[in-house]
Amino acid sequence: MRISKLAALSMVMILAAGAAACGQSTVQSEAVQPPVQSESAAAPQQEEAERPEFYAAISPDVNPYTGLAKTENYPQGTRGVAVMINNVQAALPQSGLNAADLVYEMETESGITRLMAVYRDYTAMPTVGPIRSARDQHVQLMLPLNALYAHIGTSTYAASMLDTYHFTDVRSLDGKYRNYYWIDAERRATRAQEHCVYTDGENFAEAVERYGLDTALGEEPAPVFNWVPLQEPRRELTGGAARSVYVRFSSYAYSEFVYNEAAGTYTKYEFGGPQQDMAEGGSPYTADNLFILFTEMEKYPDGVLTHVSMENGAGLYFCGGRYEVVRWKKGRPEQPLRILDSEGHETDIRVNPGRSYVAMVDSAQIENMHIDRKTLQELGL
């Protein structure tokens, strides 16, 4: 059976990571284990030598989450927030996605996915939700952002990780124990409670103050990507045209992104219709940048929750109606997600400023991905 070049690249990176792990002297169990240290350990610190070179080049006038110019009321010196959002069909429509600087999507269990919406200014959040529980794969993408974390409930793996990195009740709010939300009574009349829980900037900011969360930053968060400077022209991606992008997470969850040339953004569709944002009157969710990153996934020992490998892999970057093949790497939970060129260099690709959507997808789904109705293999990828 022939496989796509992207699948082959992903396989090579996985094998390389496995070979490196085999060279270590520590013997690990064959069973998947939570990627955390003991709860009594001090929170690990990111080493200065591991910081990407582009960190030093970002302009102080740029929002590190978007690469866009800072607004008049920019929250200098204050943390943003990452909010867990329900993404099962019964929870639709959602609220607050278009106000997010970043949206991350991954499988959590049984084929369903969950979103994490990130806001640089939590006081300016519109109505956001429905809010859902924490998962360790999302926590690992939240940690490098230096943000607060909002969720209701948590998996045992996510709880252990939040404890290890000293987030619990310090930089995170679990609505199961501390209130920062309300329940939409109209929705609750016909839906389960987990599909009806919301917050906004005013309510969240009041809770942050009431519970004394650590909001102060010694410096600005690190830039999420290697942003193209605002004074330079936007970069045209080199791989080819991409007017529509189909991504399958599982037999239950799949999405399509359609490029709007007039707006220069991709509109997201799921469950057969546009992913609506009721905080904007039902407008569809759109993003300037799309990253579809492939990785290995398997079940945790409980047989239910999904373990997502955060080591490295291959993927695709979409912007401006075009695409290019990329690699990605991460590593330890506190280390940043880096988007690298596909040539094997440790070079962070330049990303056009704007709001970004990042999906981490099981490598087994590479064969089901389409760009402009063609499989990656048909495109020579």
Description of the molecule:
- This protein is α+β, with helices and mostly antiparallel strands and 381 residues long.
- The protein contains 5 helices and 26 strands.
- The strands form 6 sheets. Strands 1, 2, 3, 4, 5, 9, 17, 20, 21, 22 and 24 form an 11-stranded mixed sheet that branches. Strands 10, 11, 12, 13, 16, 25 and 26 form a 7-stranded antiparallel sheet that branches.
- It starts with a helix and ends in a 6-residue tail after the last strand.
- The model is unreliable at 20-31 and 36-43 (pLDDT under 50).
Topology:
Layout: H1 5-22, E1 81-86, E2 102-109, E3 112-119, H2 136-142, E4 148-151, H3 156-164, E5 172-174, E6 182-183, H4 185-188, E7 197-198, H5 201-211, E8 226-227, E9 240-241, E10 244-248, E11 254-260, E12 265-270, E13 273-274, E14 276-277, E15 283-284, E16 286-287, E17 289-295, E18 297-299, E19 306-308, E20 312-319, E21 322-329, E22 338-340, E23 350-351, E24 356-362, E25 370-371, E26 374-375
Parallel strand pairs: 1-4, 2-24, 4-5, 8-23, 17-24
Antiparallel strand pairs: 1-3, 2-3, 6-7, 9-21, 10-11, 10-25, 11-12, 12-13, 12-16, 14-15, 17-20, 18-19, 20-21, 21-22, 25-26
In brief:
This protein is of the alpha+beta class and 381 residues long. The chain contains five helices and 26 strands.
